[in-house]
Structure formats: C-alpha cells, structure tokens
Fold these 4 entries.
Entry 1:
Amino acid sequence: MDRIALVISDVDGTLVTTQKRVTERTRAAVAALHARGIRFTVVSSRPPFGLRMLVEALGITTPVAAFNGGAIASPALQILEQRRIAPDVAREIVAFLEAKRVGVWLFTGEEWLTRDLGGAHVSHETITVQQRPRVVESFDGLLDQAGKIVGVSNDFARLEAIEGEARAHFATRVTAVRSQPYYLDFVAPGVDKGLAVRELTPMIGVELSEVVTLGDMENDVPMFRQAGFSIAMGNASDAVKQQAQETTLTNDEDGFAAAVERFILPRAGA
C-alpha cells in the first residue's frame, strides 16, 4: 500500500493480553503510530463503556466502534450511531438461547443486563468491560433497547454448533457470530466489523486503501476485507490467518506491538 493513515485493531485476543492488560510495549507502539501521523482506533464486540480503559490508556482521539460495529461512539464514549435488534427478533433470540440451555446477556448502549449474577463468565466479563451487570428477573420491557444479545457457554464446540443453527434459523433478520469461543453475539442485520470500518473511515477522513486492520477471530475477517492491509494474530485460527496478508505473534507475546514494529512502521516511511 502507498500510504498508511489509520490502524484499526480488534481488542480482545488482539490488543490486550489474556489478562485484559494493555502492555507498555503496546502503549509505545500506538504512540509510535501517532508520532508518524497515523491515526489509531478500535473495533470491538465490547459495549461502548467497555472501551473506556483503552481510550484512556492509548490516547485514542477518533471515534470507536462497539457491538461488532453496531454502535459508533465518540472518544468520550457518547453514542453517535447505534443499530438495535428489532424487539420481536430480540425476544425470539432470547427464547432460542434459552431452549439451547446457554446463558443469555443483553446489552444496551449504557448497560449490561443478566438474569444470573453467578452465571458463566460474568466475573470474567466484569473485569473485561470494567462495569458490573444489572441483574433483572426478565428482559421484558428491555428488548427494544438491545444493541447486542450474547449466548454464553463454556462448551465451545456446542456453542459453535449453535452458531450454525442460529444463522440458519434467523437468516437475514440478525447477524450471529462468535466474538470469543465462549460468546455467541447477536447484533442487528447487516452489522459486522466491515461495516464499522466503512463508517469510521469517512468520519476520520481517510480512504479504505489507507487502512491497516488487526484481529484474531472470524468476526474480524469482514474488516480484513475492507482494509488495504490486514494482519492476523498468532492466536488466530488457520482459517482466519488465511484471510489476512500477514501473521504476527500471539496477544500474550505482544503480537500487536510486534505487528506495528515489523509490518506497519516500515511501510509508513519517515
């Protein structure tokens, strides 16, 4: 590519370690991008409020994307655009996941809602997004606010099978994709990280051909396809790696920083 103007990174499994930390080497890599005049932002399955620690730690000054592209927020995390799941479809998703006997979470733009505070991955997600969920007896009356619904299970193979069933069942009425082996995300139809890239670039004032993207999961592949250059993490599956132009180290080996140092800064010139 002739010019790099923007780097867009996935968050979990890419930008942060397994312990959800931003390393000093990652901070230095983003600072090096900024020093070259290259903008930096994130596209994540997290809710907008779950990106606060990254905006603060990395000095992000551009809009960010949450809910796999379903919400665009300012650096102050004010929601600029949000696509919600239709209430009748949201109700059907909850019933579908209940029938599969997996945990169900509902995210609005401002809140994370659960019916079981002791359920799988609740404590893990609390650390990740740095906000506790609100416990509700029912999602009734809240379904019209759903930006994302998540099916949660520690049975990774079973959740993968449920993902396939969900795509067949809901077809074009919703987008269903795993953001982690243990999370199956449901967002509004047409929403994916590729859409987020297409919406962020004109806001930031760059061309798609000037964008580099980094990620580790299948839900990151749509943004690979929009960018001028894409990099898969070392912890990504072989299928995801095949969709990127380069592969870096794992997220626990400072793979993001290594990618900036090896693949991005040398292409950026002086």
Entry 2:
Amino acid sequence: MTTRSGVVLIACLFGLSALALAAVQSLARAQSADLVLCDRIAADPTDPDKPADVKGAPEIAPSDVATAIKFCKTASTASRRALYQLGRAYAANGQVAEAIVAYRKAIDKGSSAAMVELGILYAAGSGIAKDEAQARWLFEHAAAAGNPRGVTRLTALANGGGAGPPADPAQARAMLMKAADANSAEAQFQLGVMYAEGSGGPKDDVAARAMFEKAAAQNHAEALDWLGAFVLSGRGGPQDTNAAKGYYEKAAALGNEDAKAALKRLECSLIVKDRRGKVVGNVCF
C-alpha cells in the first residue's frame, strides 16, 4: 500500500526527472542550433562529413570568422565536423596553433578533411615543423577514407618531388578515377594530365580532353588552359580556334600565366620573315 508521503515522493521524483529530461533536450537543441550556425558559415564544400543541404564555402568570410569560432567551439563538443570547422575558423583568423589542435582532435574522431588540412600544414611547414613523410601519411589515410582531396594532395606531393614519386602510377590513376567520379575538379584535372601523358596506363587524348572539360566546367584554371591547348590543336577532338581562345580567356581571368601567354601568341600569330626566311617579328591583331 502506498502512503500519502510515498505518493508525494514519487511525484517529486517524477517532476525532477521531467525537469532533467527537459534540460537535456534544451541542451541538445542548443547544440544543434550551434552546429547549424557553424555549418552555415564554416562548412567546407569538399568535406565528406558535410550535410548534403549545406553548400559550404572554400574560405570563411573575414566578417564571419569570430562568429564561426564562437558557434563551432560550442558545437565541437559533440561533432567532429564542427571540430574540423573550428580548425578552419582558427586558421582563417591566423591562429595556426589553435587550428592544429582542433584538426588533431577531429582526426582522432575520424575526420578525413582534418587529415588533409593538417597534411597541408606539414607539407608546407606552416605553423609546424615541415614533415613530408607525415604529410604523405595523412594524405594516404584521407585518400583511403574516400576523401578526394586526400587523393589529389597525395599525387601533388609526389609530383612536386615531396617524399618521392608514387610507388605505383597505375594505382595513383585508379585513385584519381574514384576522386574524379566524386566530381573533384582537381582530380579530374590530374587524371586528364595522366591520360594525356600516358602515365600509369595507356595514353588517351579523348579521355584526357573529357576530363579537362569536366574540370573546366568547375572553373579549374589549369584545366581550362590545358583544354584550350587541346582544342586549339584539335587534340582528342575537333579543332576550334575561337573556342580555344575562350578557354584561355577564362583561365587567364583566374590568374593562369600560361593561358595569358597563349592568348598573346594568338594575338600575334602571323609570323613575318625576311627574304632569307629569317623570322623578324610577329603581326598582332
């Protein structure tokens, strides 16, 4: 038989439990709101952890950095994505040491995007002792986790001398194919170069041109320059001088120096020779 005092005690306990549950739910909602705001201003468009409905931005706007640090810091207690984004915010604010700490914590929780960013810092020796072997390790693990930037950074490190050439160019090509399928413009460009040069497999100008076209559609400056060269010479497809000029102009507008030089050559394409056949100059239009 339950006494009156027992009923009161049970009611009190139930009330406390309800209050505790409400507090937990309120905290969860607050953390969720912090993560939403963190995503809105600090999400990386290439992060595999990023929700599909979040666009992200390649760089955090300077006016948003302080806000990003505030909300991502709170959200990072329960989200590895927020930890990575906190690192991005710190890096954008010039706080490299704090960014490294955040990246390491995110990596401990499995963030492949954080692996790439920390690898970039190791490769450049930015805010940390330069260590190309460690950079390679991080890029390899990010690539193995399916991160397209891990693949492209790994191949770029090898192509730049870094810690040595890729042990298996064919494997590098296969990895780039996966990243290209994930619509990584850099992977599409690098794969196009491998096709064009016959590196890691058969030479295929048609496939190379197709890869350059895909990357160029995403405004990849080097891909636009290469595509201009392919179209100008009719390599891997129809020749079209006007279209090539258009690709060069887009690449030049993005700062590509090779494209600027190519445009200059197109402007001065008529060669003037003397009676002996010696080149004396060019006529520009």
Entry 3:
Amino acid sequence: MWRIPAKHSWNDLFGALASILVLIPLSIAARAQDAPPKQADPALPMTAQSKISAAVEFSIAAIDRALEQRVPKRLATFDDRATLCWHRRILRREVDIDCAYSGYVERAGAISLRAEHGRLEKAVPIYGSVSGQGLGRFARLLHGTAGGALTVYASALPRLRPDWTVALGMAEGFRWQEPPVLHLLGFNINLSRYVEPKVRAQLDRVGAEASAYLRGIDLRDKAETAWRSAFTAVKIFDQPPIWLQMTPQTAAFAGMHAYGDALEGALQIAGTVTTTIGAEPPANPPTPLPSLGTDVAEPGKFEVVIPLVINYDAIRAKIQDVATAFNNSGLTLRDVKAYPSGKTITLGLRVATADNTDGEWIYLSATPKAGGDDKSVHFPDITVSGGLQSASAPLAAWFKEEAHLQALQQQLRISYDEQQKDIVASATARLTRSLGDGFRSEAHLTSFGVPNVQPLDDGLRADFKSGGDLKILYGL
C-alpha cells in the first residue's frame, strides 16, 4: 500500500506532479520545434497537348496485284484505214498512198509501282506489232510488218479529297525504244502516229482502274474506327501502374504520302493526353468524328508526360551510403528521416557523438532538381533548417563547416536513368499493339525533356515529357 510521509502534505505531492507534467510537454515541444513540418503540395496534373497520326496504309504491291487482275495483257487490237500513209515524189509526180494497218498492243511485263519523293511512280513495258498494206492498184504491192517496244511512265501525287476519296492525279507519258516503222521498197513508213492514240486510250484505262481500286476503300469508316481507338486508356507500366488516356478534340488532313512499299493516307488527331498513376481511369466515351480541318504539312508529334517516382526510402538509403563523411569525423549516423515540406524536402539526421551515443537530430532542407548527363535527382542547395542551436559543440561545428554540406550535395545524387529506360521501353511496347479489325498502333518515343520534380507524400515525382510518334495504322 502506498503511504504518504507525514511531513509531506497532499498539496506538496500535487504540486510536484504538476511541475513534472508541465516540464514533459515543454520538453517535447522544444524538440518538435527543431523539425520542420511535413507538408506536401498538391500533385500537378500530368497532361500534355499531343497529336496522333492516324494513317490508312495501302501496300503498293497490293495495288500492283489489283491492276494485274483488272488490266488485261492484250491492251488493244486495231484494224483501220489511214490516208496519206506514204508520200513521195516519183518521176516528177507527187505520189500519195493510202494504207490499211492492223495489229495489237500488249503488256510485255507486269505493272510496276513505286514510291519516290512522295509521289507514286508507275512503269509498264508495252510491245506493239503493226502490219501495213498499201491501197490502190499499184500500192497493194507495198506491204510489210514492224514491231516496237515502249515503256509507259506515269507519275501521281495522291490527294485525299474532303469526301474521303483519293485523287491520284496521274500524268501519263511514254517513249519508244523501237518505234513501229515499216520498211518498204527502201522507204520508211512510221506508224507511231496511228498507234499512239490507241496506247494513250489504254493508259487512261490503267489510271482509271487504279483510281477505282482506291475509291473502293471506305476511308471515312476507317477514320472513324481510328478516332474511337484513340480514346482507349492504355496501361504502359505495371509497378507502379501507369495509364495513358487521350481525349481527342480535332481532326485534320495530314495528306497522302507515298514511301517505300506503301501509300499512306494520314489523318492528324489532336487532343490532350493524361497520365495517371494507380487504378485504371474511368472510361472516356468516344465522341463522333468531327468535321475535318485544313491540311497540315505533316502528321504531328506525339507527346506524353512520363512520371518517375523516387520514394523516400531510396533517399534514406542513399544518405546511409554517403555516411562515411560522418565516420571520418568521429560522428555516427544512427537514423534518417525524409519527408516533404512544401516545394522542398526535409532530411532528418540523428547523429551520435562520443559523448552522446544515442544521437541528436539535425534537420536539413533541400530542393530536389533533375537533369544532367547522369540523369539523376540532385540537391544543390542543402542547408541546415533545425536542431543546430541545441546540438552539442562537436556536432554543431561539423554542420557549420560549409565544405561538409558541399560534400553532401555532391554525393547525394539518385539516378533515374534505368527507371526511365524501363518505363519508356514498356510504354513503347504497350502502345505498339493490334487494335483488331486490321488496325494496329505503333509507337516510337525518342526525345525526353528535363523533368519537373515534386515532393509528394509517397516520394519525389519527376514528370518529364517524352516525344515521338504514335500511329494508328490500317493495311500493311
């Protein structure tokens, strides 16, 4: 049983307890005042204005095959009569001979298409055989057969019309390798002027067939499919989960382009791309395909905000790694705190001395920055923000030495290079995928800006813009 000595009164006991209770909170408050408050700014939204190239690609080889099926090998046969096939002065008399000619023109090889400097170039080898027979009493004795080879050349600058049809704008031309000339009685009769109209008519047919093939493809329907696909959220990284979601707003012609083995009709889709970390964002309902804007010189560049998160455990571990600077001065790092204080972070270091093995808390303030060749987050302005006035003399002297803080600034660098490479590689792989119904997307992220760093509750978030190309393709 507790007993109160007679010489002490209840009032004395209560007074002593009250003194103790007053001293305890004052002591705690004194220590708490040394530590800067924990305070994280609201996270900035991760949005970027961006553009997608939605392209419908056609294989030039597929057009070749279509033309091969539609355009027959024998392009034309003819049997006609012409006046003044041959004119000569014989025995001081002007002699005009009419003639009849017949023959055929056919393709001597396949129709070859290729892309060159943004244009669609066509070449068709053609062979023609012509027989001629003079008309009249004596002229019927004049007859002969000749053949000639020529190559048809056509150049087209494809254009996408406002009604979503393709205009090829083909310009035809050809030249003879061996013009069809009849050699009769020592004279030459050039029949090319009779054959060429037939050839030109067939060239028009080839151009019409190519145009008909492209008109048969419903570009508007495919543009609407590409537009709807652009609204889908895509998970680009697993840990932590990172999602990209675009909100398309406008669409404009990006022109028709011919390159390699492809003819491409491109649509530029512009809007905002939002990056979120965590759960999948709510679905973004597609809007109807808007009215098309004017032509643009080339499809725009895709930009997206890629976030990197460096948690405070990584910062604490890095400080433990550089703690040799303390050991060389007779100090020992016992514990580390790291937390946000507005736009800066607070680093709490519990450092032990020979006289105080438990350690005393010193608080540092630092503004995180990113960039540099080593792609790291560094802290160029480390300063003491608390605990120095109540610290023991050896500890206070060490932190007052400017060279020591400079050494911490130089060593306290946290690389994000590998993390950035992992996220970008994952984003490129996840954005390059099949979309179904013949559509697919292809991503190429190539450029990276200097990140903006924010101290948040769960760590430092470095947001940097990554640029490149994102295409929604149909065809090849």
Entry 4:
Amino acid sequence: MDFSLTEEQQLFAKGVRDFALGEIAPLSSKMDREGIVDPALLEKLRGQGYFGLCLPKKYGGLELDTLSYGLVIEQVARVDAGISIMISVHNGVGSTPVMLFGKEELKAEILPSMARGALAAFCVTEPGAGSDAANMQCRVERDGDDYRISGEKIWVTNGYHAEHLVVMGRLEGQAGAKGISAFLVDRRSEGLQVGGKEDKMGLRSSDAVSIVFDSVPVSRARLLGNEGDGFKIAMMALDGGRIGVGFQSLGVAQAALDVAATYSLEREQFGGPLADKQAIQWMLADSATELEQARLLTHKAAWLKDQGEEHGRHAAMAKLSASETVGRIVDRALQIHGGYGYSKDYPIERYYRDARVLRIYEGTSEIQRMVIARRVLRDYGG
C-alpha cells in the first residue's frame, strides 16, 4: 500500500500553502473580527481557480481527483477555516448536484460560471428540519410544466454571496424522503429574499444566512434528476461534502498542533521550556497520533471515491474521526498556551472557536454514527 503523495500533489499542496500564507493569513484576523470575506481576496480565489477544483475541464474546471481537492481544503483551513468551507461547499454540495444530475443544457449554461467563481450554495436545513432532513416542509407546487417554491432555509453557507442555489423541497401531495425534489434556483429569482448573516462564534470569514422563498418560479429545465430524487441527491452530495469537512478538520488540527508545539518550545516555566515537561510532551504525542489516524482515514475515503467504489461509510467515518479529533487537539493546544490561549492575541483562540462547528454541519457526529451503524448492520444482514 502506497500512502505517499505524488510529486505533483506535493508541489500542488505547497503552492496552495504558499498562497494561503501570502494572501489569506494577513487578512484572517480582520475577517474574523468583522465577520466578512475580503472582496479582493475573493477575486484572487477566483483567479486561482479554487471554485472549479472538481469540475470537468470542458466546463473550465481543474478536474482534480478527490485527494488533490482535499489537499486544497486542508491547506487553506490551516490558515483560515472559514475560507476553506466557502471553497468546500461550493465545490462539493454546491456544484456536484448540478454536475451529476443536471440536464446537459443546464450544465453547459451554469458550470462554466461556477468554475469562474459564481458561488453556489446548498439549501437543505430548515427551522424545523436540521438533522432530520427528510422532514423538510419547503413546498414545491406545480405551475404548468414548471414549479414554484415556498418556504425558508436557514444556515445556508455561501448564501450571502451565492448566485446559484441548490434547493431541496417537498412536492405537493408527497410525503417522506421520496417526496423531496432538487432544483437549481437563480439568486435573482422573483420572490427570493436573502436574510442577514448569522453572527457566528467561529468560521466568521464565511457567511451563513436564511433564505425565504415566496412562490419562487423555477423552470422544469432546472429540476435536478427526476421528481422525488432530491433526498437521494442530497445524501450523495453530503457523502462527498463529509470528506471535505474531514480535510477541513485536518487543516485546523494541524494548525493547532503547529502553534502548540512552537509555543511549548518558546515558553519557559520552572527553569526551562514547556517542551521539556512530560505532561506537555504527552499532549503533543496524543495530538500527533490522533491527527495521523484521522488523516489516514480521510485519505482512504477520498481514494475510495476516486476509485468509484462505495464510500458513504468511510466518508462518515472520516468526518466523525477528523471532526472529533480536532476538538481534542485544539483543547490541548489551548491548555498548553495557558491563559494566553484564551486571548485573541494568539491564533489558538480562533482555531478553538472554528473547530467546534465541525462536529455539527454536514451531519452531526451523532448522525455519522447512525450512518456507520446502519452500514455495519447491513453487512450482517440487518
């Protein structure tokens, strides 16, 4: 088994790292403080092709394999987790449903603009339907051959800037998961209203908003897949999205370990550096070991996806493992910093806040355990 990155992947990751340190890092504190993404940075991200990472070359994308895509998310997350989730949502749950389930005419029309950086968002969560996505109440009514959507979606990442919205809604008269259909909605559609940005604890350079649909017209050409395919499309998109969150978690965890190790070497207590103390060494050792375990599992999930094999269980495992691991690592890293870790003058304070939501979005840790358990039981005939 070969666990090494190719020379091309290593060079690619280094290029992303250099870009993140040079262009994102100087702005991260300001973007976190103000809760915005710098407009000039957004243009630079577009110029680097970061919004077409997984799209086919014929649509203007880079057509990266999943592991190379994940390296982008990881390296950006080491510097700014909010920017990384903006990129991940767009490339994952935002554009993938269109790429896999859109009609050819729709793909030819929309995907080139997505590759150029016309942001995409994924609208599933509702005030009464979070983890229980099959219970969504957003209504879809037939309007001749076309449709109208009414309802509210919340916690829509990229929603403030997005031009394209993948929206899940329940077709009139249909119940359960099979009653849900998926549509691509234009942000400028009549009856669509974007709410204010959530004042979040972390990931503050990334926006999350509510979106209200008041009888928004959608043509049949923008139906993704067939009627009733929405839940299946959402779950398939989330399988890939969870791999992205796994890589994002790796990036934040690596950043926390980096600053913890550096601080332990620089900070002197009791006649020598903290790094000489066994208690500190054990915290660093546990963090490094757990990070490597999560990285191997996340890389395997990416490899399975690239092989075209069933990867839902491993995507859930990667997301569960990496998001839980980063929570432990940032906690140890802040502890190593002592009181200074609680100050906004040190980056670990931001990493600590950014890490918490990784156990919640794109499926909570509890949902991941349910997904994994169902697949385990299925293997035993359950």
